[in-house]
Amino acid sequence: MDLKLLLISTLLGVICYSSAQQEGNECIKANAKSCGECIQVGAKCGWCTDPEFLKQGEATSTRCDELESLRKRGCDGAKVENPRGSQQVLKNKAVTNRNKGAKKLRPEDITQIQPQKLTLSLRSGEPQSFNLKFKRAEDYPIDLYYLMDLSYSMKDDLENVKNLGTQLMLEMSKITSDFRIGFGSFVEKTVMPYISTTPAKLLNPCTGDQNCTSPFSYKNVLKLTSNGQEFNTLVGQQQISGNLDSPEGGFDAIMQVAVCGEHIGWRNVTRLLVFSTDAGFHFAGDGKLGGIVLPNDGKCHLENNMYTMSHYYVCIIIHNVLYYTTGGSNPEFTTAKSMMLKFLFTLFNLTSLSSEVILENSKLAEGVTITYQSRCKNGVTGEGEMGRKCSNISIGDEVSFTISITAKQCPKMGKPETIKIKPLGFTEEVEIALNFICECDCHKNGIEDSEICHNGNGTFECGACRCNEGRIGRHCECSTNEVTSEDLDKNCRKDNGTDICSNNGDCVCGTCECKKRENPEERYSGKFCECDNFNCDRSNNKLCGGHGRCECRVCICDANWTGSACDCSLDTTTCLASNKQICNGRGTCECGTCKCTDPKFQGPTCEICPTCPGVCAEHKECVQCRAFGTGEKKETCERDCSYFNLIKVKDRDKLPQPGQAFPLMHCKERDANDCWFYYTYAVNNNTEKEVHVVETLDCPAGPDIIPIVAGVVAGIVLIGLALLLIWKLLMIIHDRREFAKFEKEKMNAKWDTGENPIYKSAVTTVVNPKYEGK
Questions:
Q1: Domain with 563 in it: what CATH number?
Q2: DSSP secondary structure string, 440-498?
Q3: Other C-beta atoms within 10 Å of 260: how many?
Q4: Per the database record, which ranges form the Integrin beta subunit cytoplasmic domain (predicted)?
Q5: Rounded distance between C-alpha atoms, residue 189 and residue 288, angstroms
Q6: Domain around 630
Q7: 433 pLDDT band (50/70/90 cuts)?
Q8: Which pLDDT tens digit goes with each residue over 116-161?
Q9: pTM score, two decimals?
Q10: Shortest CA distance to 298 belongs to which of 283, 314, 311, 277?
Q11: Number of structural domains, the chain?
C-alpha cells in the first residue's frame, strides 16, 4: 500500500466545473457532415442512413437529428445509426469476509475493493455508471517502520525506544495477527554543519566527555521483521550522535524509507512510518553554502543500508506524516514510554486507521469527466466532492460508491485510455479501460470511390457521400472551382423573375442548398427552397393546431383531424350525451362540438333546457340557501349548490329579460314563511349556469308581527275565560250564602197571622147558570 504519513495535512484538489445546456436542437446546430461527427454531438443525436431520406434542398447535415425528430420525418428506425455505450466487468473478485483468528491469508489473497477491472465504451454525452464496493478487511497485515532522530537531544528517548519492540508487538496483536516492525535512524546531512569542523569533531561531535557516534544522514538499522526481540536488541546497540545546527535531515531519511522498498521490506499491506524527532527540518535553499541545490530524484540511494547522496540532493516531502514529537521546545509533550505506546496504539486503533475512506483517480483524458456518489454507514449519502469519501468507517464496515464516467468528446485519434481508482492510502485499485465510440458501425461498410458519388469522387458511407478533397455537392458532383459559375446559378432560379433559391438558400453546383433557420426545428426545402415547415395555418397558437405537420406551407393533418389548421376533430365521442345519442338527438357534431338545432336546448351535448317545465323547482332549494341562507339545503349548500354563478339584483326590474343571446327562465318560489323570492335561471354562451336573484324577500304585510299578535290575543282570551270562570264561581258561592241567610231569618221571624182587612183576593169565581151538575 502507499506510504501513510500522518499529521501533515493532505491537500486535495477540488475540481469545479459548470455546464450549460444548449438551447434548441443541438444535433442540427452541429452541422455534422458525417455519421461519426453526428454521434459525437450528443447522446440524443442519430444519423439516418436511408439514401432517399433527404428532400430537395436539404443539406447532408440534416441527416443528423434527434431520434424522435428523425422518426417524424419518415426515417425508419432500422436505418438510424445510434450506437450506445456499454460496460464489461473483467475481474470481479468479492471483497474478503475474514475475522481475526480465521485461516491466515497471504496479503495478495485479501480483497478490499470490488470490482478490480472493467472496460467502458463511451459515447459522447452518455455517462456510464458502475458501483464500487469497499470493505476494510479485518485482521489486515500492518508494516510499521520506526524512524528516529539520534541527535544528542534525543538521548532520553532512545532509552525509551530500546524496549519498545516486544511491547508494541504485544499491543498490535490486539488488532492484527500479522504485524512487522523495522527501525531506522537519521541525524543530519554530512556536509553542511561541518564544512569548517575538525576531523576529530566529525568523529565525536558531542561536547565534554560524551561518547557519540559520527554524524550520518540516514541508516536502515532493521529491516521489517515480526521478531520484536530482534528490534529491542538492535535498537539497544544504537548510539547518540551530534549536530551543530537545530534543523535535522529527517526528510532525506523519509524519502529513502519511502522509495527503498526492497531494503526496508515493505509489503503490499498497510504501511506506517513513525517519524520521531524534537527538531525542525531543512528548507529549500539551506544547502546553498554546501552546494546542495538539486531536488531529490526520488530514487533509492542506499549502500550497505546507508544513504550516500545527502550531500547532493535537497529533499521535499509531499506525503502525509505520522509524526511523534518528543519534546524539544514544547513542554506539553512527554517522553515517557507508556505515553509513546498509547500514542502509537491509538493511531493504530480502528477509529484512527480507518476513520475515513477517500477515493482518488489517476489523470483523466481530455474531455473525460468523472463523478462520485457515496453510500456510507447509517444511510449517509454524499455527492460532488463529498461523494468521494465516507467517514466514521471502522474495520469490517462496508461502503459503496456509484461512479459515473462521461466523455464530452473523442480524444485525438480516438485511442483507448486507462484510468485507475483507488482508496487513498491503499494499493488495491480498480483499473478501467476506456474505449471511445467515435464512428458509426456503417462507417466500416463505406465504399471508396463509389459511382454514386459522381463517378468515384467520394466515399459512399452511411447513406451519404463523403467527398474527396476539392469536391463538393450532395453527390460530389462539382469541383470547388465551379461553384460560382453563372450557368449553374440559372438552375437555382424557379424562373427569371425570382431570386436564386427563393432567397432562402445557396446555389451549390447548380443545386439549391437551403439555409438553416435560427430555430433548428424550422427548415426550408424544395428544389428552389420555396417550401418551409413553419408558415402553415395555426390554431391555439400552435402550428397546424398541434395535430399535424407543415409541409411546403400546407398542413398535413393527423388521423381524425381535418381543416386548414388541423383544428377540426372528426372524433364524435365528445358529442355523446348521457343517453349515448350524439348531441342528445337535438343537434349535429361539428369538429368535436355540438351545434344544437333545437333552440330550447343548449350545452356541450344539447342536454340543458333552461326554459323547460320543472327547472325552477329543480333549483329552488339551492337558490334559497345560497341567496338567503335558508331552506332544506342550508347545511349542505356549499357542497351541493356550487354548480351555478349567483348574481344578486336589487329588485325585479333588474332581472335579465327575454330576448338576450341565450334562453332564460323566470322563476317565482315561496319559502316556509310564505315569502316569495324571484330569480332567473340560464346557461350562457360559455355553457356556464347563471342565476340572477332579487336580494330581498317579498312577504305579506307585517309578516313578522302576525304570529306574535296571534299569540298575544290567544293568551288574552285564555286569561279572560279563566277570570270569567272564577267570577262565576264566586257569584254562585255568594248567592248561596245570601239565600241560606234569608231562610234562617225567615224561620226566626215572629209575625201576627191575622187577615189584612184591606186585602182583596185576585181570584173571581163565576157560576155558569146552565150548568146542571151533569
A1: 2.10.25.10
A2: -GGGGG-BTT-TTTTTTSEEEETTEEEEPTTEESTTS-EETTSTT-HHHHHTT-SSTTS
A3: 20
A4: 728-774
A5: 13
A6: 615-694
A7: very high
A8: 999 999 999 999 999 999 988 777 788 889 888 887 777 777 777 7
A9: 0.55
A10: 314
A11: 5
